Every structure is written in C-alpha cells, then in structure tokens.
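Standup notes
- DV: blocked on the single-chain target, sequence here:
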Amino acid sequence: MKKNSKNKKGFSFIELMITIAIMGIMTTITLVSMNKGRELWAVKTAAREVAATVRETQNNALTGKDLKDQTISCVFTFRWQADSSNYFMEGCKTQSYVLKNGVTFGSPSGSINFEVPFSMLSGPTRTITVKKGVSAYNVCVYVSGAIKETADTICPAS
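- DV (later): unblocked, structure below
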C-alpha cells in the first residue's frame, strides 16, 4: 500500500512559525496600546488632582480659611515647578503635594495667586500642564474663576 500525502493531517513547520509570528505581533500591539492607555490615565488623574488643589486654594481665599485676624490681608498661592512632581498651596498655611505615577509638570514653572476675600485672579487665563511620556493634559484657570481640565494644547475660551 502506498501512502497518499493528501491524507496527512497537521501543520507544517512553516505554518506553525507564521502563526506564532502573527500572535507575537498582535500581543506586542496590544501591550503598546495598553501602556499608552495607562499613561493617559495617569496624566488625566494628575490633572484632576491639580485642578482640585487649585479649587481648594481658590475656596480658601474665598472663605478666608485660617485667617487669625480679619484685618490682615492674606494671599493664597498655588505654585508648581517645571519638570518636577512637586506642587504647593501656600497662604496662611502651606501644604505640599506630589504628583503620582511618574507624572510631572510641563514648562514653565509658575504660580497663581488668589487674594482674600474675593479670590480674584489677576492677569490672563493660566495654563498648568501635566505630562508623562508623550501624553499631556492641561488645567485651565480662567479670570472668571472657572477651572477646567482639557487635552487641548491651548485653553479654550471660557
């Protein structure tokens, strides 16, 4: 009896190698996209935390929190450092914070002052950029008092 090669079952070595290569490429693409997603999530979370601290600074100026003597003027300041993860709320008392997950502030360094008792912001809209890798997010602080987080490179009009 002669064996017929058409009745063989199974995969050839080349077919197996091509299948493994395709699976490897698909796994690599999935891991890269998941890493970018984690990076963007970390930046968005940091932007929300920064915006919350700016709002807290603004609220402290509105309420005059921690003022011992109502005749003393006090300014509450939100301050950040470029290419650093440190930021501060300074005023009648100072608190320091640190961005998590390797997120840092973009350039330039800056500060935003809110004066007691009206929490007025002097000057134009201020932009605070947080970044990690290629992902960046902005916190926009408007003269009107609004504070928004955005992925836009320039803060949109309030």
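- Follow-up: The first helix runs from residue 13 to 63.
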